[in-house]
Amino acid sequence: MTTHSKVRQTLACLEGAKATMDVYGEISQDEQARKIFHRNSQKLDLVLDRLKKRVRDLEFEEPQFKGF
Amino acid sequence: MPEWLQIIIRSVVLIAFLIVLTRVVGRKIAARMTFFDIIFAMVLSVLAAAVTLNLIHAAYGFIALITWALAGIGISFLSMKSKMIHELLHGKEAVVIKHGKIMEDQLMKMRFTPEDLLQQLRSKQIFNVADVEFAVMESTGEINALLKSNQQPITPKHLGVETAPQTGAQTVIMDGNIMDEALSTMGLNRGWLRTELDKIGVSPENVFLAQVDAMGDLYVDLFDDAIQPPQPTARQLLLTTLEQAKADLKTFSLETDNQKAKQMYDQCVKELESIVYDVRPLLK
């Protein structure tokens, strides 16, 4: 597996985790828990943005992997 | 009127009267009755029995009963309003063990022998007086004890462990019937329930009992006990995913030669660490 595909895989996993966290943020009955999930979902967004940028950089450096 | 008919009529009237009276005087568990309550109950029951069996004149009996009942209601009202009267009637709680030392004079005042004290403590699973920091004898004669701090059971707070707030689970299916009210208090509906049941491959008719906890996890018990429904794992999965991603990013950071990318990965690892730390108690 190339680095590029590995990073993309991690990115996908984290996107899934963020979606789960958002769901919990909505259905959780406790106000405090809601807040924690919302806050961490936003934090995770930052990480996702960075990783997406990294994937773009990798594709720019090695265009042969683009689309894989 | 024959004697037996009179007895029946009096009994029925008295039963009705006592039912009303016990409702009015208020609800107290027998074990929580103070000495005064017990005396009051005894007088009423003896009077009632005497009137039923015609041991005393029925009219006099009723007068006595009503007087006692009214006095009882009046006194319970007064003792609710005034602390002094309450203490006078029901007694005051007494500290019998203070800073781990038994207060002998207090015990004497309460006519409590050391054996009684030990027996009461034993009934609270305390066999060693040395473990007790503080004990109070309530006005009912019951003893409540506070253990020394190093003898108290360990709670998550002692361990510095944060726990998720637990609100009660709602029962959404009972005996195969969907409880719409419970669903709507959780902000869910039948559609959601059907989807969740589909996810674990169970038909709604086969569910004996289903509960949803505060995080929306569904627990089901089936009529057909041969089928093993999967336990909810979504929370654990989320935590594992985050941990996994953290480990992956660490690997990327080690593998890359690009200094800027390395920094970026390291920063992401730190962010993820703080996220995991934050949500872990909620996902446990």
TrEMBL record, chain A:
Protein name (Swiss-Prot/TrEMBL): DUF1657 domain-containing protein
Q: Tell me the organism.
A: Lihuaxuella thermophila
Tell me which domain of life the UniProt entry assigns to the organism this sequence originates from: Bacteria
UniProtKB/TrEMBL annotation, chain B:
Q: How does it sit in the membrane?
A: Multi-pass membrane protein
> For the YetF C-terminal domain, which residue ranges apply?
81-213
The domain of life for this entry's organism is Bacteria
What InterPro entries does the record point to?
A: DUF1657, DUF421, UPF0702_alpha/beta_dom_sf
Q: Name one Pfam family in it.
A: DUF421
**Keywords, comma-separated and alphabetical:** Cell membrane, Membrane, Transmembrane, Transmembrane helix
Where does the protein end up? Cell membrane
* Residue spans crossing the bilayer: 6-26, 33-53, 59-78
What is one GO cellular-component annotation here?
Answer: plasma membrane
Can you tell me which family this protein belongs to?
Belongs to the UPF0702 family.
Name of this chain's protein: Uncharacterized membrane protein YcaP, DUF421 family
